[in-house]
Amino acid sequence: MLNRRRVLVAGVSLMASAFLPARVSHGTEGKKSELVLLTWPDYMDAEVIKSFEESTNLTVRQVLFESDQERDQQIVRKGSDAFDVMVVNRINLPLYAQQGWLTPMDKNKMGHVSHIESRWMADTDHAGNMMGVPYFWGNIGLAYREDLVPNPPVSWLDFFRPADHLRGRLNAMESDRELLGMALKAVGHSVNSEDPSHLAAAESLLLEQKPYIKSYRYIDLGKDSPLVTGAIGMAMVYNGDAVKLREYHPKIRYIHPREGSALWVDYLAVGTVTPARRERALAFIDFLNTPAMAARNAQSLHFASPNREALHLASPGYLADPAIFPPEHILQRSEVIQPVAPPTLRRINAFVARLLR
User: Fold this and answer.
1) Buried/exposed 71-108: b ≥16 CB within 10 Å, e otherwise
2) pTM reported for the whole predicted model
3) pLDDT of residue 106
4) What's the pLDDT score for residue 174?
5) Which SS3 state, helix, strand or coil, does residue 61 take?
6) Which of 40, 65, 119, 214 is most exposed by smallest CB count within 10 Å?
7) Nearest CA-CA partner of 5 in 235, 203, 265
8) Spatial separation of the C-alpha atoms in residues 125 and 261, rounded to whole Å
9) How far, in Å, CA of 236 to CA of 239, rounded?
10) Rounded distance, CA 295 to CA 12, Å?
């Protein structure tokens, strides 16, 4: 994948394209029967989409991206008016708003948004306008095959400084901030540290780990995933994706490293579309937040919903799964990835580019 999402509260790829103007088209309204959704692959339950289409006589056309960078490129290339609804991660939401890529949302036209827990709504405002509706949240951790990893991992160092039998059998994320951020956690520092000595220690650890990495591309989530086939023994993943992988192999496990992690939040936002398309976009977002639809969507994808009414409808197994809902002591040790100063970001991007070569 990136066969999946978001990162995290952490994508910073927009910084690389922040000075490129969004293309503005004139009179390019899409088909009246179509709603265009810019999203990660497999990031919305098919039956939920079908229910919306049947209730509105609209067709949802999904345009997929496999990394934060690709999402930015799609918007720059096609224009922010090409997408009715976008899935945007937390760190990019205000940056997209500053770029003029998003349309403020009228909360009064989305009654079901009132079901969203207030703590997840805190970062949705820009200049007094609501720019996004929380969709899912979670963290990053380690998925592994217990039959291939005799000593279960408990720490990020078990991944970054693994046993010799895992040489060439690890899978890491390619996203800059997440990869370096978890290395920073492993050496005892904040995922947001800009201290040159801290960054140097994390970089050294990643170079030490490189012979153990089979791929820096986000792991596939299907039945042919290398974690399912046994081609790899351990992978750095988003928590809900680990739950998905468990469906394909009974020996796949997920742990929250004891040092804590990075928390991510994804939002649904509206592109710079015409008023008619904006109405359809708001109707779609509101539909997704009806408790029954939100509950179905969350349980299907195995991610934590910020919709409190949806949680009241969810199954006990979903609510009790510690892979989906991290324990409180892990949450207390975890952080949201924040923007860093441009010189630090350039250093991180340059280092990871060299590492991935």
Assistant:
1) bbbbbbebbbbbbbbbbbbbbbbbbbbebebbbbbebe
2) 0.83
3) 93
4) 86
5) strand
6) 119
7) 265
8) 25
9) 9
10) 30
Residue 5 corresponds to which tokens in the numbers above?
Answer: 């999402």
pLDDT tens digits, 226-282:
999 999 999 999 999 999 999 999 999 999 999 999 999 999 999 999 999 999 999
Label each residue of 184-249 as H, E or C: HHHCCCCCCCCCHHHHHHHHHHHHHHHHHEEECCCCCCCCCCHHHHCCCCEEEEEHHHHHHHHCCC
Please report how many Cα atoms fall inside a 13 Å half-sphere around the Cα of residue 99, on the Cβ side. Answer: 26
The set of long-range contacts for 316-321, using a CB threshold of 8 Å and a minimum separation of 24, is: 321/243
The residue count for the chain: 357
Contact 169, 234 (CB under 8 A): yes
Please report, as a single letter, which amino acid is at residue 16.
A
Q: Which two tokens stand for residue 128?
A: 């007094």
* Most distant pair of Cα atoms in the chain: their distance: 61
Cβ-based neighbour number of residue 31 at 10 Å: 10
pLDDT tens profile 330-350: 999 999 888 899 999 999 999
pLDDT at 270: 98
Amino acid at 114: S
Q: What is the pLDDT of residue 25?
A: 37
Give the residue from 176, 200, 181 showing the smallest Cα distance to 262: 181
- Asked if residue 240 lies in contact with residue 324, where contact means CB atoms within 8 angstroms, the answer is yes
Separation of CA 187 from chain center? 24
What's the pLDDT at 155? 97
Which H/E stretch holds residue 38?
Answer: strand 34-39
Q: If 0-12 CB within 10 Å is exposed, 13-18 middle and 19+ buried, where does residue 121 land?
A: middle
Strand partners, 83: none
Low-confidence ranges of the chain (pLDDT < 70): 1-32
Q: How many CA atoms lie within 13 A of 281 on its CB side?
A: 31
Q: Which two tokens stand for residue 289?
A: 């937040």
